[in-house]
Design brief:
Distance between the termini of chain B: 24 Å
Radius of gyration of chain A: 34 Å
Strand order of the largest sheet of chain A: 13-14-15-16-17-18
Helix content of chain A: 25-40%
Strand order of the largest sheet of chain B: 9-8-7-11-10
Shape of chain B: elongated
Structural class of chain B: alpha+beta
Number of helices of chain A: 18
Oligomer: heterodimer
Number of domains of chain B: 2
Helix content of chain B: 40-55%
Strand content of chain B: 5-15%
Radius of gyration of chain B: 26 Å
Largest interface: A-B, 73 and 103 residues
Distance between the termini of chain A: 67 Å
C-alpha cells in the first residue's frame, strides 16, 4: 500500500467535478476533478485544506478497494504521495455524480463501506422512512393520433408518354416527298429531355468503349451522378451540363466543383486548377461579356445562367439567344485547349437547347451531371472528406463547403501538432525535396492513429530501408513491420500506373509473413478514383499489400475494399 | 391527476370492460396484420413475371402500382406510388428495365410491346423484408393471445382493385399499432409497469391491485405476478413490502408486453420511410421513453438521502425485450450489475454489501416506468439495471 494510481484528466471531462476523498485526520479534502473551494461541500469541511488532483480516477490497491471513478481512460501515470496511506485508511467515499448533471457540486454525505453494514443491521426504521419518501409518478392517457396517407400520391403513368426519338428512326421510315402549296405553319416543341438525347449519344460512345476495355466498374458513378466524370476526363476539356435543382436543399454545385478540383489534380500535372465562377444574367451588356475570358484550359469554369426575362409563347427563355451567342464562339475553341472543365449550371431545358444547338455541332465531349441517387451521392461526399457525417437537412453544396474545410482543418492541426516529431520527406536523402501539405499531414494522421496503440513499438518516418525510403514504418511489438507509403496521386494522370510502380518498387522489401506494405491515399482521390485503384489492390492482394484511406471521425484507416462494399451495398435512392 | 396520488382513477385494470376493449384492439390488430400479410404474399407472387403478363392477367391496376409516378428520366416523383410499393412491399421494376421502356419507346417500339421486355423484381432493400418479419411476429403473438381468450380475429380483406390498396392497408396497420401503445392505451402502460417493481411501490400506485376480486379478474385476463426477489435478511413485514414482483414469463400479459414492444420496434425502425407517404407518423418509441425519462428526472431527491447504489457500471442496456435491444438513445446514466443474493446479508456486489432497500428505493420509480429492472438470473443471482436520476 502507499501507491495511488492516478489517471490523467481526460480532455473531454475537463472541468467536471466527479468526486472527492476526505481525510479527517489530515483535515484535507482531495478533490477529483475540478472544484473551486471546500465551501461547496458544506460547512463541515470549511476549515479543511483543499488538494486538487488533476485526475478523474483514484483506485486504491487495498483489499477494501474502492474506486471513485473507473471511467476508462487512455493513460496511466504512477505517482507516490506522502499521504497515501492516510488517505487509504480514512477515506470516505462520496458517491459519484453523473457527468451530465453537474451544474453545481452536490451536497454530499459521507458513506464508507463500514457504514453500509452497520446500517443494514438497524434497517427497520429507516426502511419505513424510505418507503414514504419515494415519490409516485403519474400517467396521462394521450389522444391516439390518426395516421393518414398523403392525398397526392402519384399514380400517373409518365412512361406512357415517351416521344419517339426521330434520330433513331430516320432511315427506317421511307421518306415521302410532300409539296406544300403554301409554306406550312410549324410549331415545334421540345419534348425529349437532355437526358434522353444524351443517352442516345452515350449509348453509341459507351458501347464502343466497353467493347474495347471490358473492365467492369466497381462503383457505378453513372447511376449516382448520371455520368462518370472521372472516366470521361482525360487530356481534353470536358463540358458538364448541370441542371439547377428545383429546391435549394438539393443544390450540389459546390460539391461538384470540389470533385472537379480533385479530378483535375490527379488527371493533370498542372496542379490546382484556376477557378472561375461566373453568373451570367440576361441583362448583362454585350460589351462586358466580350471582356470575359472564357478559356477553359486548366480551369474549372462554372457559368451560372439564371434567366430573368421569362419565356415567350413557345416556352423559350427570351434571353437564350444572347446567351447562346456568347457561348458559341467559345465552344468552338474547345477542341484545342488543355484539360479543364466548363460547367454550365442552368435550367434543364436551356441545357438541352445548348446541347443540341451548340455542343452537338461544335464539341461532343460533354456530359450531364445530375444527382440520381441522393443517398449514394451523400455517402460519396461523406467518404470524400474523411467520413464526415452529413446532416440530412444540409444540401450537398452546404456539406461540401463545410466538410472540405473541416477535413483540411483537422489534418492541418495534426500536422502542426506533430511537426516536432515527424520528419519532412527528403530529409533522409539530405536533399531539399518539397513535400506537399497533404502528404505530410497524412503522416501526422498515421502517427495520431498508431502512437498510442498498445502493440506499437516504434514509428519511424522517412527511413531508408533496403534502398527504399518509406514515408512511415511502424514496428510492432510482435515483430511485425508495416511499411507505409502515402500516395496523393496528384499529377499521376492514370492512378493505376503510378500505384503499380510504387508497389512494385517497394514490394521486394517485404519479408514474408512479418511485414505488410500499406498504401494510404487521401480520401477525395481514393473515393473518386476507386474504380482505377481497386484493380491494383486486387492484383497485389495476396502479396501483403493493402490500400487504405482515412476515417477522421474514428481516427483510423479504412481499407478500400470496405469503401467499395459500402458503395455497392448502400441502398439505392432515386429522387 | 398528478404525481403523488394513485393511478386507479386513470387506469381501470379492475374493470372487465377495460380488458374487453383492450382485447378487441388486439383482435383488430391481428385481423389487419393478417390481411396485410396476405397482401404481401399476393403482390410478391408477381416477382419474375413480365409487366405485360401481369397487366394482362391481373388488370391495369398493376400498371399504376409498378409504374405510377416514375418519370421519363427513370427517376420517381416524391410521392410516387411505384416507389411506395418498392419501399414498403419490396416489389418493383428494376431501374435498367425502366430505362429499357424509355429507350424502346424512343426507338419507336410501342409502350405495350416495351412492357414485354421488363420483369417485376424484388427490390434490393432490407426494409420490406424487415416489415414482413415484424408483421409475422406481431401476428404470431396477437393470435396466441387471442387463442387464450378463445377469440378469433377475422383477417381484413385487401383486394387489389385499386392502386392505393397497399397504402390503405398500411394506414390501417399503423393505426392499429398505435392503438395498443402505452401512451394511448392505459392497460398497456399497466402491463409495462408490472415488469419488475417493489411490491409496496406497486400497491401505492394501484391500491386495488392486490384485492382478491381484482386478482381474480386479472388472472382471467392472464396477468400473473410472481416474486422475483425477496430480501430474506429483512424482518417479515418488510420482506413482503420490499419484495420485487413482476410478470410471470408464462402468462398472457407477458405476451402482451412483447406485442407492445414489437409494435414499438416496427414503428421505430420504419417511421422514416412511412413518413414519406403518411402524415402523423413519428418515432413513437422515442417519444414515449423520453417522456418517461422526463418523469424520472422530475423526481427530486433530497440532498440528505444517502444513496449507496451508484457503483461503477454504466452500460447502455435495454428494457425492451429482455436483453440488449432498443433503448440505446436515451440519455441518462445507465447501469447494469449482476448481484449475488446472500440469504443473510442481502445483496452483494463482489464482496461489498449493497443496501437492498436503498438500491430499490432509488430504482423503484424507474422500474415502474419501465426504465429499470430486476431479472432473476439464477437461484443466487439477479441482474439489476436501469437509469439513474441523481439530478438535484
Amino acid at each position: 500500500m502507499g501507491e495511488i494510481r492516478i489517471r490523467q484528466e481526460s480532455k473531454l471531462l475537463k472541468k467536471r467535478y466527479l468526486g472527492c476523498a476526505i481525510s479527517s485526520e489530515e483535515k484535507t479534502v482531495y478533490i477529483v476533478g475540478d472544484i473551486e473551494d471546500t465551501e461547496l461541500l458544506g460547512d463541515k469541511y470549511r476549515d479543511f485544506s483543499l488538494v486538487k488532483l488533476p485526475i478523474i480516477s483514484v483506485e486504491f490497491s487495498d483489499p477494501r478497494q474502492i474506486s471513485l471513478s473507473s471511467y476508462p481512460l487512455d493513460e496511466t501515470i504512477h505517482l507516490r504521495m506522502a499521504s497515501a496511506e492516510n488517505i487509504a485508511k480514512l477515506v470516505k467515499i462520496i458517491p459519484l455524480i453523473p457527468f451530465s448533471s453537474i451544474s453545481e457540486p452536490p451536497n454530499v454525505k459521507e458513506i464508507s463501506s463500514f457504514d453500509v453494514e452497520v446500517h443494514i443491521k438497524n434497517v427497520h426504521g429507516d426502511i419505513r422512512k424510505l418507503m414514504d419518501f419515494i415519490p409516485l409518478v403519474d400517467y396521462t392517457e394521450e389522444p391516439c393520433p390518426r395516421i393518414e396517407p398523403y392525398e397526392n400520391l402519384d399514380n400517373i403513368l409518365h412512361l406512357r408518354m415517351i416521344p419517339v426519338n426521330l434520330e433513331n428512326v430516320v432511315g427506317t421510315i421511307p421518306l415521302i416527298p410532300v409539296v406544300f402549296s403554301e409554306p406550312p405553319e410549324v410549331d415545334i416543341r421540345i419534348l425529349t429531355s437532355v437526358v434522353s438525347l444524351k443517352k442516345t449519344v452515350r449509348r453509341i460512345i459507351t458501347s464502343k468503349i466497353s467493347s474495347i476495355t471490358k473492365r467492369r466498374a466497381l462503383v457505378d458513378f453513372k447511376k449516382i451522378f448520371g455520368g462518370d466524370i472521372v472516366a470521361e476526363y482525360v487530356e481534353r476539356p470536358l463540358v458538364i451540363l448541370a441542371p439547377v435543382p428545383k429546391e435549394d436543399k438539393d443544390d450540389y454545385i459546390e460539391y461538384l466543383k470540389r470533385m472537379l478540383r480533385e479530378i483535375h489534380r490527379v488527371r493533370t500535372k498542372q496542379g490546382l486548377p484556376d477557378p472561375r465562377d461566373l453568373r451570367i444574367e440576361e441583362l448583362v451588356k454585350d460589351y462586358y461579356i466580350s471582356l470575359i475570358d472564357l478559356h477553359v484550359g486548366n480551369r474549372i469554369y462554372v457559368i451560372r445562367y439564371e434567366p430573368s426575362g421569362g419565356t415567350n409563347e413557345l416556352g423559350v427563355y427570351s434571353g437564350i439567344e444572347k446567351f447562346k451567342g456568347i457561348l458559341e464562339d467559345r465552344i468552338r475553341e474547345l477542341y484545342s485547349q488543355k484539360s479543364g472543365f466548363l460547367v454550365i449550371y442552368g435550367p434543364s431545358d436551356i441545357l438541352y437547347e445548348l446541347s443540341y444547338s451548340l455542343l452537338d455541332k461544335h464539341y461532343l465531349h460533354y456530359m450531364e451531371f445530375r444527382i440520381t441517387d441522393s443517398q449514394k451521392a451523400s455517402l460519396i461526399a461523406s467518404m470524400m472528406w474523411g467520413f464526415e457525417e452529413k446532416n440530412p437537412n444540409q444540401s450537398l453544396s452546404e456539406f461540401a463547403v463545410y466538410a472540405d474545410e473541416h477535413y483540411y482543418e483537422y489534418l492541418r492541426e495534426l500536422a502542426l501538432k506533430y511537426s516536432h516529431i515527424i520528419k519532412l520527406s527528403g530529409s533522409a536523402k539530405l536533399v531539399d525535396v518539397h513535400e506537399g501539405f497533404w502528404h505530410y499531414a497524412i503522416k501526422a494522421f498515421i502517427y495520431e492513429c498508431f502512437a498510442d496503440k498498445e502493440d506499437t513499438r516504434e514509428i519511424k518516418f522517412e527511413e531508408n530501408y533496403s534502398g527504399n525510403i518509406f514515408d512511415v514504418i511502424i514496428e510492432r511489438k510482435d515483430g511485425k513491420r508495416i511499411y507505409i507509403e502515402i500516395e496523393t496521386l496528384y499529377g499521376s494522370m492514370f492512378p493505376a500506373v503510378r500505384l503499380r510502380e510504387v508497389v512494385e518498387k517497394r514490394q521486394p522489401v517485404l519479408e514474408s509473413n512479418i511485414s505488410e506494405l500499406w498504401i494510404i491515399i487521401p480520401n477525395p482521390q481514393a473515393i473518386l478514383f476507386i474504380n482505377e485503384i481497386m484493380p491494383i489492390a486486387e492484383m497485389f492482394k495476396s502479396d501483403a499489400v493493402r490500400f487504405f484511406t482515412l476515417d477522421i471521425r474514428e481516427k483510423r484507416l479504412i481499407p478500400l475494399e470496405y469503401v467499395v462494399e459500402m458503395l455497392t451495398k448502400a441502398k439505392e435512392v432515386r429522387e | 391527476m398528478g404525481p403523488g396520488s394513485s393511478l386507479d382513477d386513470v387506469i381501470k385494470y379492475y374493470e372487465e370492460d377495460s380488458w374487453k376493449r383492450f382485447i378487441e384492439k388486439i383482435a383488430n390488430l391481428c385481423g389487419v396484420v393478417e390481411g396485410v400479410i396476405r397482401l404481401y404474399n399476393e403482390l410478391r407472387k408477381l416477382v419474375g413475371q413480365t409487366l405485360y403478363d401481369v397487366i394482362n392477367k391481373y388488370g391495369n391496376v398493376y400498371e399504376k402500382i409498378l409504374l405510377g409516378g416514375i418519370m421519363q428520366e427513370g427517376t420517381s416523383t416524391e410521392h410516387s406510388l411505384a416507389k411506395f410499393y418498392k419501399e414498403i412491399f419490396g416489389i418493383c421494376v428494376d431501374y435498367p428495365d425502366i430505362n429499357a421502356i424509355i429507350r424502346l419507346q424512343e426507338d419507336g417500339v410501342s409502350y405495350e410491346t416495351a412492357l414485354k421486355e421488363v420483369k417485376v423484381v424484388k427490390a434490393d432493400s432490407e426494409v420490406p423484408d424487415k416489415i414482413f418479419y415484424y408483421l409475422e411476429e406481431i401476428y404470431n403473438l396477437s393470435s396466441q393471445i387471442l387463442q387464450v381468450f378463445k377469440k378469433k380475429s377475422e383477417a381484413k380483406v385487401y383486394k387489389v382493385n385499386s392502386p392505393t390498396i397497399g397504402v390503405e392497408a398500411h394506414r390501417d396497420l399503423l393505426n392499429a399499432l398505435l392503438e395498443i401503445l402505452p401512451q394511448y392505451e392505459p392497460l398497456s402502460f399497466f402491463i409495462i409497469s408490472l415488469y419488475s417493481v417493489p411490491r409496496f411501490y406497486l400497491e401505492r400506485h394501484y391500491p386495488k391491485l392486490f384485492s382478491e376480486d381484482v386478482q381474480e379478474l386479472l388472472k382471467n385476463y392472464g396477468v400473473h405476478l410472481h416474486v422475483i426477489l425477496e430480501p430474506n435478511h429483512m424482518p417479515k413485514q418488510e420482506r413482503e413490502n420490499w419484495a420485487i414482483i413482476g410478470l410471470d414469463r408464462n402468462c398472457v400479459a407477458w405476451l402482451i408486453r412483447e406485442l407492445i414492444m414489437w409494435a414499438f420496434k416496427l414503428i421505430r425502425e420504419t417511421h422514416s420511410i412511412y413518413s414519406k407517404y403518411y402524415t402523423g407518423i413519428e418515432d413513437e418509441f422515442k417519444k414515449y421513453w423520453w417522456s418517461q425519462l422526463d418523469k424520472l428526472r422530475a423526481i427530486r431527491i433530497p440532498s440528505d438521502m444517502p444513496w449507496s447504489c451508484g457503483r461503477r457500471g454504466y452500460k447502455i442496456d435495454t428494457l425492451g425485450n429482455g436483453e440488449g435491444e432498443i433503448v440505446g438513445e436515451l440519455s441518462g446514466w445507465y447501469f447494469r450489475d449482476e448481484l449475488q443474493v446472500d440469504p443473510k446479508k442481502g445483496l452483494l456486489a463482489g464482496y461489498q454489501v449493497v443496501s437492498y432497500a436503498k438500491l430499490f428505493a432509488l430504482l423503484a420509480p424507474a422500474m415502474f416506468l419501465g426504465l429499470g429492472y430486476c431479472i432473476r438470473k439464477s437461484a443466487d443471482k439477479v441482474i439489476v439495471g436501469g437509469v439513474c436520476y441523481w439530478e438535484r
